[in-house]
Design goal:
alpha+beta, 2 domains, 5-stranded mixed beta sheet, 5-stranded antiparallel beta sheet, elongated, Septum_form, Septum formation-related domain-containing protein, signal
Length: 302
């Protein structure tokens, strides 16, 4: 064993001497140093989308290779009003936030305020829809933590209409009276009281319903499925109707007008859209003007 160790040591010494002895025979331009002259590796960066861009369609997840903004003067279906960043616990998850997650709801709340500033008013006052796009799973694994606030025009809001093409930006679109505004309607109801149709129209045309505003449902309020659930929405809408028409929000309000409550889809509700649109509805009568501020004389008990 001792001999083997001596043989190994001798070989190592011989190798060391051989390496040391070849220094003078290097080719021109070779310095024999293995740790210098290498270019630094580029810093790893992740893609971040830009606000103020328009897109042909909406997607919950936005892979880098499908990011293809178009000029807002060309047909498109959504517009990025803001790009935010997931931080804290939301940024530390192994996968992007799902639509039903608290992180997604928090991002939606930021987007809601951003859309309000971008439009000049709550988007729910118009035929508009707001969604949140998050990074794809591979992008998230690579460090992407952005989210896009996507705003688009829809065919209608009363029947969950689809996104439609438009060829101009939505910036400032609700700052003044707009073709996108929700106004008056002719409601058709079934014998059981269910609404079968809400036909939009100008308030100078004969109508029996009018959009009056929005309330934000608290987190404790479930998406309406039962009669009791719907009554909770109607109770809140009555307060919105009373403030709009300038009539008392008391037990007699239901004798002046009914209400229509329109939340968005259950999927939107769980993703953070807790805004409920409210409409007054008079089933035995009609009007040819807006009922904003008319008071008890303009909206008498019936």
């Amino acid at each position: 064993m001792r001999v083997g160790r001596l043989r190994g040591g001798g070989a190592a010494v011989a190798l060391l001497l051989a390496l040391a002895g070849c220094g003078s025979g290097l080719p021109a331009g070779v310095d024999g140093t293995l740790v210098d002259d290498w270019p630094a590796l580029p810093t790893l960066t992740t893609f971040t989308p830009k606000a103020g861009t328009c897109h042909a369609s909406f997607a919950d997840s936005g892979p880098r290779d499908s990011y293809a903004p178009v000029p807002c003067t060309r047909p498109h279906r959504t517009e990025t009003v803001q790009v935010g960043t997931f931080t804290g616990d939301a940024a530390g998850t192994a996968a992007p936030p799902t639509r039903s997650s608290p992180a997604h709801a928090a991002a939606y709340a930021v987007c809601d305020q951003a859309a309000r500033a971008y439009l000049g008013r709550d988007f729910r006052y118009g035929r508009l829809w707001l969604g949140v796009t998050v990074p794809s799973s591979p992008a998230w694994a690579g460090g992407a933590r952005w989210y896009r606030c996507e705003l688009g025009q829809v065919a209608n809001v009363e029947d969950f209409g689809e996104l439609v093409d438009r060829s101009e930006s939505l910036e400032g679109a609700l700052e003044s009276p707009s073709p996108l505004d929700l106004t008056c309607y002719q409601v058709t109801a079934t014998a059981a009281g269910a609404i079968s149709r809400m036909a939009p129209m100008g308030c100078t045309a004969k109508h029996n319903s009018e959009f009056v505003g929005v309330f934000a449902a608290p987190a404790s309020l479930a998406y309406p499925k039962s009669g009791d659930d719907w009554e909770k929405l109607h109770t809140r809408c009555r307060a919105v109707v009373a403030a709009y028409a300038k009539v008392p929000n008391d037990a007699n309000l239901r004798y002046r007008t009914g209400t229509v409550a329109v939340p968005n889809t259950e999927d939107d509700w769980t993703s953070g859209n807790r805004g409920v649109r409210c409409y007054l509805y008079v089933n035995a009568g009609s009007f040819t003007r807006s009922l904003r501020g008319v008071g008890v004389k303009g909206l008498p008990e019936r």
